[in-house]
TrEMBL record:
It holds the Pfam family DUF8094. Residues 19-301 form the DUF8094 domain. This is DUF8094 domain-containing protein. Residues 1-21 are annotated as: Disordered. InterPro entries: DUF8094.
Amino acid sequence: MKEAPSPAASSTPKPSAPVTAQETAAVFKDYAERNNAANAALSDKLLAGYEGGSSLAIDKASYASTRKLGGNDDYVPFGYDRPAFHVPAARERWFLTTAYWKGKTETAKEPTYLIFARDGEFWRQMYAPDTYASVDLPEIRTDASGAAAEVGQEDATGLLMSPAAFAEGYAAHLVGQGTPAEKTRFAADKLTTGAASNRRKMDKYARLAEIAHPAAAYPSYALRTADGGALAFTTIERSKRYNVRPGPERNYVFQKDNGLLPGKYYTYMEMEELIQVVAHIPPKSAEPGQIQVLGAYSGIISGSGR
């Protein structure tokens, strides 16, 4: 659930029919309406009717947290402004939308990427990362018909690395692993700098053990960009455990505003997170560029402690 962007799906096109501009717009409109209805009711059943993949897992956990924190009585519906659609040449399985979240009194300055994938007769929202301020979003390459070009997950043709290699490398980078040379492949971004800051801040109170890897249970997607690079979408699964340090004062850890991890934990706290990441993989060149993470959407999906 997002009270900023979060997408959905629809049931209009036939399973084998190409996606038209009219259909992508209808899917998107249907999503916005159904998403607001599910968010207002905190209904897992409604949510599962239009979301899939890691989006569904993240938002179901968000609903559970919100219910434990007292509900959603003050929910305010939202919409999107200036949607633009990018459909891969196969025109059957999935498409990308960029749009600006629009609330009652304000509109986001940065767009959200929304991926919709076909599931039988239905369309489901699979990714919804919000983009960061002060990053340049790459232009999508299109052919004469306006179709975009899909990039396979293992395909490194013309790229600094394949989308699959990016997912593996970035997961390690997110938890501070990797060689110095491997770390230079990634430009600084909000996720990794925030994670490093958290490790330093919490070290006084608890020993942190964390592991991250590509979440193989959920699909990844990529499109060719106009500069010859790729726009890659993947989901990272991160596990964290804080073992509270003994001290002269009784230390504890806590997770702010999350109903899955209420209260204070004086011995340990552990959690599982899913993190949707969108990144620009630059084209391969004599002087390699850096991969730039452009945005993310994440949530704690489970947790426990004592």
